[in-house]
Amino acid sequence: MNPVDPSKVYRLLYPAVPAIIACNDRGLVYAMPVVSIVSLSNSPPLIGVASSPEHSTHRAIANTRCFSVSWVDASMQRSLEVLGTTPHSTPDKLQSAGLGHARGRTLDVPIVEGAVAALECSLYARQALGDHELLVGRVQDARASDDFQEYWRFQTYNPVLYTGIQGGSFRTFQPRPDSQGR
Asked: What pTM did the predictor assign?
């Protein structure tokens, strides 16, 4: 095996399925793609998102104490790429990236229209960890497309895979013909 720079070990975790975290704060819609997201607890249902406190979306979530998580498929790949480079001063980052959104069912958070899955989370805790902070969200509402039945079947959901190549290109995943949910 070849040595890997410890500061780049996160690249060993790629490819990863990106999600979009978003919130409303003082009339502005903040959003950004994330790949460092994990389930932390089933009871209560908690998820963790690693984010730099320097991001405007991170600061808005800390202020509003709630956020959404939306997963999109390959048909929205270009919008996901645009979202990752949209200036933080944009009044509605989702709309600027070509992503419509609606208010959540439980919380005042933007849910991406056409998302294959979405969570509405209240901010449960924050934990500083090196140059990032773990935002812990308590899931208040969760929903998914019909392609999710306890697990993804990948019959209609074609996830985007973030590979981290060349400064952050996104690649699409094509399930093998023999992997029809088995």
From this structure: 0.91
